[in-house]
Amino acid sequence: MEALIALAIGTLTGCGVYLLLRARTFAVVLGLTLLSYGVNLFLFATGRLIIGQPPVVSGAAGYADPLPQALVLTAIVIGFAMTAFVIMLSLRARDELGNDHVDGLPQSGDTP
Amino acid sequence: MMAHLVLAPMLLPFIAGLLLLALGQFSLSVQRWLAVLSVLAQIGAAIALLDAVSGGDILVYHLGDWPAPWGIVMVADRLSAWMVMITALLALCALIYAGLGVDAKGRHFHVLFQMQLFGLAGAFLTGDLFNLFVFFEVLLIASYGLALHGGGPERTRAGLHYVVMNLAGSAVFLFAAGLIYAAFGSLNLADLAAKASQLDPDNLGLARAGGLLLLVVFGLKAALLPLHLWLPRAYAATSAPVAALFAIMTKVGLYAILRTHTLLFGDGAGELAHLFDPWLLPVALITLAVGSLGVLAADQLGRLAGYLVLVSVGTLLVAMAFGIDGIAAGLYYMPHSTFTAALLFLLADAISRRRPLSGGRLTSDALMPQHALWGGLFFVAAVAAVGLPPLSGFLGKFLILRAAIAHPWVWVVILLAALLVMMALARAGSLVFFGATSKSTLPDANPGVPASASPMALPLLSREFLAIGGLLALILALTVFAGPAFDFALATAQQLANPALYTAAVLSGRP
């Protein structure tokens, strides 16, 4: 399970960073979204991966740490709001700058 | 009442922001008055807080009465109160200037402004790493709105870069916080500091990686090299009062670096002690060097002021690398550099609006109304920015150099940077003020517009005078009361050098 989670986090983060470095705002927004998915999964795993334990301290031998879930929830909410904001901003940039390049540069292949 | 004082600098702008949102349909002057009242109240709360912590007490507020490592805590020590004070004073001047008409160019300017203040105060007062992240997000999302306020292609383009850079930074912050939590099993700063020395050796790698990732994130917020690229353009493209308020934003990054550097990775942190030490000085010196070259290369006043922010960030970080004396010198220099940066942004805007042909570009233009007055103000601001006597910038730089007495090459970099900045400002002043010609000789002057109708004839508006004069008065006060201010800075540095005080206050103080 550790390997699977690690692979998933790594893939999401790697794809996110790759897309973040693209020159088009659509790819950048997708990249940010994937990056936040990677982060959320990572936060979820910071309480260690445990199966079949009570969710809070109960005097028994072990417990599954509930705190990372609270952190993930906060991160998801904030990430959701930020994604909404950056999508609106990208649309506005597309509108005002005439194309969807992150620097607003005119491209040779663009239709006017 | 005293027990709740810690929350006051946060709650006042938060409540005012909500009120402003509800009163959105009221006239702008009502909103302006409410906003100014809120900031005045915040200044009052900051003074009370400063007074309460000046004796060395550390005020801790346990939200919901939950004991420290489990509940959320807000902590006010000397450093937090100092930063809150700087923020509130700066905000008042920026807000007065915004009343000139920037706040009318879009909706909800004052709501965003108050929420920005809420986020700033929260970031300075929180005692928990994850809440630091949350308050960073609060102040960032307000700053996105403020940076884009008024619109326009250049602002949108610079704003997009600013937003994407900071969203990526937020993701890195979460990775860092996750790593710290995985290593320590806690995110309460005091609890982390207490656990740092007896950390399980298996977790050392996680803690180190998390700590250095934190440095990356805070470096991004503070615009340290090589993460500075977003700053000059974003600050030059946004409106002047917002840029003036943003002068404190880089200081939030510096504050977070200083807090983690002294509390988490201080002398008592065992294997983790001095984690940041190999990075602080080199990064600071390179930032200083590149910032001063940028000042020299800037072709317009706003850009110039933006690069001066970089120079001041570099100078402050140099100070932080030199122990108690350095941190004390840096804390004394902090308000000076913040107010000076804000002053330059406001002056750049005021001067640009009086030069209809060239705006903020460094070219000669027609004489402005009250030409000598604006020239004189720019001269005073330049003296403050370079750090020449008699203003507080000189004292701050002198104290920093004194703390770095054993490192001649640090002197070389700081003094050379000051020389470059002085050259750039002298050139800018010469071009803008001495190069001014009488308006009829300009080749591309618009002959159809009578002189009285052109924006050149703008009078010295009282709001403008209040904001700029207020910042100048603050710098003067910092010069005149240098003794008490530096004593406080020194006491703050000594308090920071002893993280056990912070830990004991947070963890033992059961509500």
Write a structural description.
The complex is a heterodimer of chains A (112) and B (511). Chain A has 112 residues and is mainly alpha-helical. Helix content of chain A is 63%, strand content 0%. In chain A, α2 runs antiparallel to α3. Chain A is elongated, with a radius of gyration of 19 Å. The model of chain A has no long low-confidence stretch (mean pLDDT 85). Chain B is mostly helical. In chain B, α1 packs antiparallel against α2. Chain B is globular, with a radius of gyration of 23 Å. Classes of the chains: A mainly alpha (112), B mainly alpha (511). Chains A and B meet through α2 and α3 of A and α5 and α6 of B.
Keywords for this structure?
heterodimer, A: 112 residues, mainly alpha, B: 511 residues, two-stranded antiparallel ribbon, 20 helices, 2 strands, 2% strand
Please indicate the percent range of residues of chain B in DSSP E strands (runs of 2 or more). Answer: under 5%
Order of helices and strands of chain B: HHEEHHHHHHHHHHHHHHHHHH
Run of helices and strands of chain A: HHH
Shape designation of chain B: globular
Mind summarizing the main beta sheet of chain A?
none
In total, the number of domains of chain A comes to: 1
Give me the count of strands of chain A: 0
Low-pLDDT windows of residues of chain A: none
Radius of gyration of chain A, whole Å: 19 Å
**Helical run tally of chain A:** 3
Could you state the oligomeric state of the chains shown? Answer: heterodimer
Approximately how much beta-strand content do the residues of chain A carry? under 5%
Total beta strand runs of chain B: 2
Distance between the termini of chain B: 14 Å
Total DSSP helices of chain B? 20
What is the largest interface, and how many residues per chain? A-B, 34 and 28 residues
Which class of secondary structure composition applies to the elements of chain A?
mainly alpha
